[in-house]
Specification:
Layout: H1 13-16, E1 35-40, E2 43-44, E3 47-48, E4 51-55, H2 57-61
Length: 72
């Protein structure tokens, strides 16, 4: 089972805008094999900030989660 993408609040602007991999932050403009990583979820008050995020080919196989802290 593929892990969920990081929450919206943990994404950089480039990751949120779809310019960088949601897992490793690598730019996706020159990346070969960009794929959807799923929906990153979050909100600000009543405003839903959910957005589809993307992953580079390397992270699509084995997402690197070490840059993100689990929110519990």
């Amino acid at each position: 089972m593929r892990p969920e993408p990081p929450p919206v609040r943990q994404l950089s602007k480039a990751q949120y805008d779809g310019w960088a991999c949601c897992w490793c932050g690598k730019g996706l403009l020159d990346a070969k094999g960009t794929v959807s990583a799923g929906i990153s979820r979050g909100s600000s008050g009543v405003h839903v900030l959910d957005i589809e995020v993307y992953a580079c080919a390397d992270c699509a196989v084995t997402p690197e989660r070490s840059n993100f802290q689990e929110e519990r």
